[in-house]
């Protein structure tokens, strides 16, 4: 088989795995929205972390890389852990009170924010083209949020906070990921999320019937399934093929919103989401080019941009590479 044939096939395989991963993520968010009608986002996150512990612990036990559990960059690890918890909490709350498509439109601003944060933290140089793409994307966010309008509320603020802290989380990973053990990069954020949500749990706790408890366990399992599919996607093809697949979530959001929640996004949401997505796609394309970006912060964010829930794909990929060495 010639290279001209095999390369497109690998791209197709990567795309299909990516689409599958983000379809699972979108379904996961539907369950979050369902649970959010009864339970606090804090309680949902706590049980999600609790049910994830056994499987993630097994994954971490397979890490043969020598070293201690002490981070080389404790300050950055603390920032990563805290920003990840805030991003997840903000997104979970937003899912519970806003239409799915509107939440996604706001979270999709994360690549724009990553590009901006990469300038002071990574020393990234952003030229006029990417700068204009970021500016256009932020205008798209304003179209979705419509500041000053009657619709703007706490849910919108929570989604925007999630996008900002999720972008910060991604930049921190890009900053220190090469110098920290996989187990450190995964364990500290997981423990921080569990401890912080556990401390807040008594203030919001509601008894959980067995069916809802099972649904929370399914939510935790779905994150791991989606991560496994995303790992296969990045193993099958280049990041520039896989990363844009995240925008398929907006289609699932519209579908599930209409089917399950009687949500019909207005024209402003569609317009703003379109602007944001086009801006994000352009940034990905520019980062994939030669001599455009030395860091490629968005392209190398190998997880769900803007919503760091569960172990990061990049860390698990690095762990797999270490076991093969």
Provide a brief overview of the structure:
By secondary structure, this protein is an all-alpha fold. 74% of the residues lie in helices and 0% in strands. It has one domain (3-324).
Structural class of the secondary structure composition? Answer: mainly alpha
Main sheet record: none
Instruction: Provide a count of the helices.
Output: 13
Low-confidence stretches: 1-6
Fraction of residues in H or I helices = over 70%
* Count of domains: 1
Structural summary, described in words:
It is a single chain. With 325 residues, the chain is mainly alpha-helical. The chain has one domain. Helix content is 74%, strand content 0%. The radius of gyration is 19 Å and the shape is globular. Residues 1-6 have low confidence and may be disordered.
Task: Give the topology, please.
Blueprint (H helix, E strand, L loop, with lengths): L2 H34 L4 H21 L12 H24 L2 H8 L2 H13 L5 H18 L8 H23 L5 H23 L5 H27 L2 H4 L6 H13 L5 H22 L24 H12 L1
Helix pairs in contact: 1-3, 1-9, 1-11, 2-3, 2-8, 2-9, 3-7, 3-8, 4-11, 4-12, 5-6, 5-7, 6-12, 8-13, 9-13
Please describe the structure with a list of short key phrases separated by commas or semicolons:
0% strand; 325 residues; mainly alpha; single chain; globular; disordered N terminus; 74% helix
